[in-house]
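Please produce the structure of this protein holding zinc ion.
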Amino acid sequence: MFFHAHPDDEALLTSGTMAMLAAEGHRVVLVVATSGERGQADLEPGEALGAARIAELYRSAAALGCARVVNLGYGDSGLAPGGGVAEDRPDNAFIDADGEEAARRLAAILTEERADLLTIYDPAGGYGHPDHVQVHRVGGRAAEIAETPIVLEATVNRDPLLKGLKLVRRFYPRLDVRAFERAYSPGETITHRVNVRRFARQKRASMAAHASQATGADTRTLGVMLKVPEPFYRLIFGTEWYVRRDVPSGSRLRHPFEIPPKG
Ligand SMILES: [Zn+2]
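Below is the modeled complex.
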């Protein structure tokens, strides 16, 4: 089970792993906390945007071979202009939800699916969106309640990310690289490096499915990513990274279900 904050987060962080596990015959379930109705798009933020983004999520899930999509239905907390928690967030914002209740709802799905594995985010919530931090908290607690054996924190190896973004910035000078300098995780904390190059086509299809986030202003992350030429794309998006807290940091595991060597 892959737990994400908003539609399109799965495309950027875990879509290659999802396509890989589906191709191996695993039942892959995608759960989002919100419909992302306060994302950047040509549509005004609100219900129509939320509905459009959920439709995009289903297209992405289909491209990846997911068996089921669940939306927990919390409000997208949005992001304050300078980062952090937005003041004008909706009443049912995910960030304001009762964490224990949200965790129990997610745990019920984990139990129903007899999930072997749950992905959440790192404690910083990647680039720090409040809903992503909440995914870490709620997801971690849900796995405790459901006694899910494997919890992986989906993240990005900051070191090659910065290198790659600096390369992309040569072509798109308005791309703000500074925002990524403290985001995600440094290489030495990462325990899983999953090679997803064979699933580059599915990953790209998943990103392309989120058209509302990829069109319009060319500074949007997804829009920029989709313009990356194919060879660079495979280089930048060929690996997905995870931190598993109950294996020694510095482990170099290659598959989500790989068992670390003893000793
Ligand atoms: Zn998000």
